[in-house]
Amino acid sequence: MSATSQFISEIANLDVQLWVEGEKLRYSAPKGKITPTLLTQMRERKAEIIQLLSQDSAIHPAKRDNLPLSFAQQRLWFVEQLQPHTSTYNEPVALHLVGNLDTAVLEESINEIIRRHEILRTTFIAIAGQPMQVISPSLQVKVAVIDVSNLSKPEVQELADTEAKLPFDLTKLPLIRLTLLKLGDLENILLLTVHHIVWDGWSIGVLIRELSALYRAFSSNQPSPLPELTIQYADFAVWQRNRLQGKVLSEKLAYWQAQLGNNLPVLQLPTIRPRAEVKTNRGASQSFLLPFNLTEAIQALSQQENVSLFMTLLAAFQVLLWRYTNQEDIVIGTDIANRSRVETESLIGFFMNLLVLRTDLSGNPSFVELLARVRQVTLSAYAHQDLPFEELVKALQPERNLSNTSPLFQVLFVLQNTPMPALDLPGVQLKEWFWRNDTARFDLAIFLTKTPQGISSTWRYSSELFTESAIAQMARHFETLLTNIVSQPHARIDALEMLTEHELKQQAMQKNKRKAFNREQLFKAAPTAINLSANNLVTTTYLQPEQTFPLVIQPVSNEIDLVDWAKSNRDFIEGKLVKHGAILFRGFSVNSVAGFENFATAICPHLFGEYGDLPRVGVGNKVYGSTPYPADKAILFHNESSHLHCYPLKIWFFCLHPAQQGGETPIVDCRKAYKILCPQLREKLAKKQLMYVRNYTNDLDVSWQNFFHTSDKSVVEKYCRQDGIDFEWYAGDGLITRQIRPAIAIHPQTKEPVFFNQIQLHHIAYLEPEVRTSLLSLFAENKLPRNVYYGDGSSIENQAIAEINRVYQQSQTSFIWRKGDILMLDNMLTAHGRLPYTGERKIVVAMGEMSNFLNSGETNAN
Questions:
Q1: How many Å is the maximal CA-CA distance in the chain?
Q2: Residues 640-657: b if buried by 16+ CB within 10 A, e if exposed
């Protein structure tokens, strides 16, 4: 082993990663591992290290038969098979040229570039089911010239947009189009549209550099000054395929599998509507500018913390996402050029790779602490950047569906620093150049570029999920957050303000209005009453430190009247309920059903009074006794009436008499349950929904006559039709009903997705084993009293049931009832159950704010 090889081996034992980017040597190392002495040795051996790391992987010309696609190309080819004739991966560029442009020389120059770069005369066909590159020996393209001098600017823009969205056929040449829009004799817009499978952002710079050199030469009747290329993109594809296999591939996968695992969280940004079953890629974009002074401050902070500009911007953006989603495990994607070898820098082609960056924001770190985490995550990703994204997807095997923008992440964040040469055409000036592409490949993609004026950003987003105003607000919040970060980088991330000054003023005004309204209502109701504001008369705590579910509200004095206080602080209670999902009112002097009913009515004037056969115990017939279920059995977790067409948004439980032992009402945070649910199962439940099946027969359970309180089948049929229930009569006077209901729902106020269902109450897996065995020995599964399936009628798998059990177990909390306790739940944000008990137990229930699946657009998260 050479001395250099020995040195590389020694520093590898220190967990130091080395890699080559062009002619640069890069490294990633844990803090403190790179000593000044070691850094000096690395610099002294730099040339030898680069040569050693590069020599065993040189790219050589390959045979021109049976040419495989690169991994990145194969991903786009696969997408094309799923969604043929789409313009999703068109890459449009527009160059605004002023001066005496020679169209013939322009066309000659473009065709020479096509001759030089085989990838621009390549098509993609399937041979024996495998996609292959087929290189045409020659290709001549024409620059289409259109006179638009009589068109308005919007009409010209519309023409350009139409051209950009014309789809390509990957089996036919060309995969590049050029159109010249003539605004006048000396003013033109050159439209260049290329399919992404042969092109990337770096390729634009290659084309501009070569176009400048060739146009200058050809306009002077000189030959091409450009040297012939030693390799082509197809050679890279063959090299990549040969290199990334076996042990090399396994070693590269090991890092990413350890970093990402098999259960990546889905970023839950608030959207205007649930994701459609099939994504259309309809998008829009907006551009913003971070001011020069702020840009300078961000760069200064980056230098101070020994991080790149990208790392600081990324950390700030992840704080923004944390504030928007309340998720501490943030996963986003970013682009890299993936041209670490010098010989690839002069090629046109699709080299770009996607990196997945997963950052832990838990523990409320300071921003500089978070920055250190981001630095480590980013450098480690760079050190393992040459694993194709496609191979990572294959290894992790996320569930594929047409509604997802990307299998591993939903948001892309890119700082564009690709070298972009100036366009230098004799007698022609580039007035401005831009590429316009409003196709939304991701839910949200942010592209930042450092300019002399500051940091410009383009926010490209799915118009199916976000509004223009929502994106503009998010961009303002990002700028405000960055402003506060540079002024107080050591602040905890929850202390960094993102609201603009105007929003803070509006917030304060609304708060003052609510206070004034509460005081006015208080004086109207009881002129001599004391101040009943929330801050004065109650305290808010938690059952356990750092456990914010449920919120506990207690009076500061035994004299506080809960009903009067609730009437004056309804907004306060409502706000706390949607924030926490559950509130335990403890220590108030409520000692009767009537007092409980008055309290519930103070918050919800119209309680529900028609709930099945439960005994009514309230003075107004709006309070019920508990479900008559055996005391020694548990009632499993469920969202009340989520299997029916109509369900309550609010539920109250009042403890008249706690059990001698047990009898707790455990509750589940349905937002948390949704977040930790396996993404594959979550997407499957959202897409397929649930089918609740009920059999009414005298043999088992209850007859339909007793349940519907009628013996008239037409009455039952009318009820079912009105409530969207499928029904079927069968021999023996039997009735079976089927109801399709969501398993994943969107909360109407918070717009958050929640796990909302009654799977545990209906699925036969939750029957006691001996009961299930006995029933199935007597009846077919479709004749059991109740069951639940996926919405398409297929069975819910055992592993899915196990996953649901895990999720409920990790999302639940419980407390021991005390006499007089009142538990208030948001029925969509919180599921509940009941544990077995001994002794007398009396808990009564009230329900309100009835909602209807048929009339609400907020409940279906498909």
A1: 103
A2: bbbbebebbbbbbbbbbe
Looking from the CA of 784 toward its CB, the CA atoms found within 13 Å total 21
Instruction: Select the highest-mean-pLDDT range: 548-562, 621-635, 818-832.
Output: 818-832
Domain that holds residue 786: 668-813
Report the C-alpha gap between 613 and 642 in whole angstroms: 18
* The two structure tokens encoding residue 382: 């760079």
Between CA 487 and CA 497 the distance in angstroms is 11
CA distance 359 to 332: 9
The angle subtended at Cα 47 by Cα 46 and Cα 51, nearest 5°, is 115
User: Is 48 in a helix, a strand, or coil?
Assistant: helix
Residue closest to 21 by CA, chosen among 340, 335, 236, 336: 340
Contact 92, 435 (CB under 8 A): yes
pTM given for the model: 0.60
Quote the CA–CA distance of 616 and 623 in Å, as a whole number: 6
Whether 205 and 336 map to the same domain: the answer is no
List own/partner pairs for 22-25 with CB under 8 A and 24 or more apart: 22/339, 22/340, 22/341, 22/342, 22/345, 23/50, 23/342, 25/49, 25/50
Q: What is the 3-state secondary structure (H, E, C) of 488-553?
A: CCCCEHHHCCCCCHHHHHHHHHHHHHHHHHHHHHHHHHCCCCCCCCHHHHEEEEEEECCEEEEEEE
Nearest-angstrom CA–CA distance, 167 and 690: 38
Task: Looking at the structure, tell me whether residues 154 and 301 fall in a common domain.
Answer: no
Tell me the C-alpha to C-alpha distance, in Å, between residue 542 and each of 144, 213, 354, 552, 669. 70, 71, 43, 5, 15
pLDDT tens, position by position, 145-203: 999 999 998 899 899 999 999 999 999 999 999 999 999 999 999 999 999 999 999 99
Radius of gyration of the chain (CA): 33
| CA-to-CA dists, residue 29 to 13, 33, 508, angstroms | 11, 6, 47
Which residues does 516 contact at the CB level (< 8 Å), separation at least 6?
Answer: none
CB atoms within 10 A of CB 818: 11
Comparing CA positions, the residue from 152, 175, 200 lying closest to residue 347 is 200
Q: Model confidence over 689-745: pLDDT tens digits?
A: 999 999 887 666 677 887 788 889 999 999 888 888 899 888 777 889 999 999 999
Residue 465 has a pLDDT of 86
Q: Are residues 807 and 830 in the same domain?
A: no
Whether 349 contacts 236, CB under 8 Å: yes
Looking at the domain assignment, is residue 510 inside a domain? no
Where in 326-453 does DSSP place strands (E)?
329-336, 353-360, 411-415, 428-434, 444-451
Distance (Å, rounded) from C-alpha 210 to C-alpha 345? 13
Both 87 and 45 in one domain: the answer is no
* Distance in angstroms (rounded) separating the CA atoms of residues 229 and 337: 19
Residues 11 and 46 in one domain: yes
Q: Is the dihedral of CA 168, 172, 175, 177 positive or negative?
A: negative
Here the tokens at position 474 are 């998010």
Strand pairing of 538-544 and 822-826?
unpaired
Asked whether residue 601 is assigned to any structural domain, the reply reads: yes
Report residue 270: phi and psi, to 5°.
-65, 130
